[in-house]
User: What shape does this take?
Amino acid sequence: MDRTYLVENYKEMGLYDDIDKNIDVLKTLLDKSSDVIFREFRIGEKKVKGFLVCVDGLVDKALINNNIMEPITLESRKLDNNYLSKKNVYESLLNYFITTADIKEVEKFGDVVESILSGDTPVFVDGVDKSIVISTRGWEQRSVSESTTEAVVRGPKEAFVETLRVNTSMLRRRIKNPNFVIESLKIGKYTKTDVAVAYIKDVAKDEVVEEVKKRLSKIDMDGIIDSGYLEEMIEDNPFSPFPQIEHSERPDKIAAELLEGRVAIISDGSPEVLVVPTIFVQFFQSAEDYYERYYISTLFRVLRLAAMLMSLTLPSIYVAAVTYHQEMIPSPLAISIAAQREGVPFTTLMEAFLMEFFFEILREAGIRLPMQVGQAVSIVGALVIGQAAVQAGLVSAATVIVVALTGIASFSIPAFNIAITFRLLRFAMLLVGGTLGFFGIIMALMMILAHLASLESFGVPYLSPIAPSNTRELNDVFIRIPWWAKIFRPHKVAGRNVKRQNYTRG
Amino acid sequence: MKRVLILFVILSLLLTGCWDKREINELAFVQGIGMDIDKDKMCNITVQVLKPANLATSSGGGGGGAAAGKPYEVYSSRGVDFAKAFSNFNTELSRTLFLQHNEIIFIGENLARSGIYSMLDFVTRNPEFRRTSYLVVVSGGTLDDLMKLSKSVEKYPYREILGMIQNQKNTSSAYVCDINHFVETLETEKVQPIVGRLEIVKKDGEPQHARFVGAAAFKYDKMVGLLSEQETKGIMWMDNLIKNTSLVIDKGPKGDKTHISFTIIKANSSITPKVNGEDVSFDVKINFDSNMIEQNSRYALTDLKMIKGLEDLQQEKVKGEVLDALNAVQKKYKVDSVGFGQKLQEKYPKVWEKLKDRWDETYPNVKVNVSVKATLKRSGLTSKPIEPR
Assistant: This one.
């Protein structure tokens, strides 16, 4: 058969009732790949021709051997010839022989090929223009392990893995309600990535669910490798430096957000699950906040917000104060800074900029480098940003302290994606602070704030419930009220079904 | 086109930014500026400029092995007016003078006596001066003496004096006045300013140390006389400025000669004007609570009579201080430092309208009735004195 013709048309082609033709088509399409297994066999005494195709490595071989091959080849012989006539071989296979739960019938080559490449196994029988596709998916996968990017002291440790089904199972295990819906679709011309949209039907807003599905269905890409692709394709304001969709690899966190009425987007091959709509304060909430005592969580939340401000503005405030507003520094400190700067060759702005720059290089190197050379890099890094640089007279000690504090502050923000946004903005702030002083810093902060206030995520204002303000919902922003007092879900997100619980403390 | 324009505006904003930038290590931190005039009516400014490198305590920080030496340097400059004198510093200094960390302005006695108006004008016009800087009149020595004092707990004389001023809160032995306060009183017609006084103590003609004690009474912008510690305290009693001070009486309730010390823990006072026809008089009422902190005679404070006696003695003492003060400002210098006129205007504006032109003549003869009420609260840890057997 002509391969180019097949490649263009196989999707719409129906199966032939001549099994040899079917084999021919599939072999032409798939034979170049060494991992595709074609297995021909005979069924029963009448020796009806049959065959199956599967991809080595994607299928559970034991399942194929025990539940498909064994009944078809061995058990069928034991049967009465009349019972297993040539005519009803197909029906018998479907109804009696194949001993797996998940099977379906397909009639088009497109479906057959797709199922093969997804790890399912189609079985053909001579004389029938249909095929039984048996779910035999079973590939090597990473076992569920502890979350590395969102570690907690208290709370569940398990994290999502790269397999969609495992991920959905972790969610389903937490929310045992028929209203918890997991809808799936395939995205990507080549990758055909399974993407699941999960939500709780009577809690999530219908409009949001529809909007998510609409935006996802509009995506027409080559492929989706990670949920990061999806995030960029569906977020509201693609030019904003701020992330407008939260992601998490913690099933407990995703389940909690589903209960608040949000919609999760799970993409096969990515351990990060997206949640919409997302508001700004979510990035400063850690899963642990809800498990630890509420006083402590409240303290940590305020701490994180302070750290956020610090990571954004500390170097710029330092530079502005030292080069423009020396009168604002307490006298002893001003004198001490002046003493430290004696003999430093760079201007304060340059100094801070260089140190921040080096710090970012170190951080980047720390993430990328192989573990074996980690120690060497951290030692060299400590020398570069540290006492050695001060003693060499390259930078002043105060700048080192400021840069170090800023770095630490930015690491204390739970969500890495917003922490790096602030890192990016910090450089802009540094430039404005070093050229326009406090005036510039205030201007830049106002611009950032105005931008934040203008953002939206799937119909919910990004800064809500701070702006537009909703005093009732502020109970989960700067403070974390105890669970027994948390009667309502966020209104802006949940829409109609806002009541979470009655006030019934044990 | 519009975008290009916006971009241009933003970029030009950034480019204009750096014009007033100055690195912190290119500044000459002034801590202590003194102003005076000399015999030729030339204006003198003396500044104490810090050398931060010599101040840094940490070893190795900064340049490493900073040469030990005085952490400050004193510069003087002359000019026909203060602005000229100030700009003359540029000819001998490598860095620009930075005044915003300066919290004290020292006024030489010559300048104070001849009027500090020109100095005030210069200081309040220049944005670099803090309006909250303390004004201090220096008596008993020159400004140069003051700036080079050797005896000091702190690293440089200015710190020492700033410490004294702040310490005043605990002793109420001198009057603290800042530029704001001075200008404010100068601008109200009813009150005359008082400025704290720094006395340089000399030994064999060499300045040893300074004492922040007493005050200088001003008539408008001219100093008319110095007030002793007692007199200053008296004014502060009337002005309701005493917060915490000590009080020593030199006789016991039985008339014996001894010393008993008290510490004032709470005090308040009020001045009430009284008008009787053309006659104006003032009632000064002072209430205070005190604790006994030391005594030489063996008084048992369990005796109520004794307590009463001690309270009476305290009242007498404070009344004496207040009368001393009144004598000095009312009779001797004839300046209304406490603001009797203001009190009169507040309560009897019509009377004041009639009197205000003649106030300068009326004031020295106005009758002031002083009444003091003392309460002895506690006697420390001892209620019965130690009895040696």
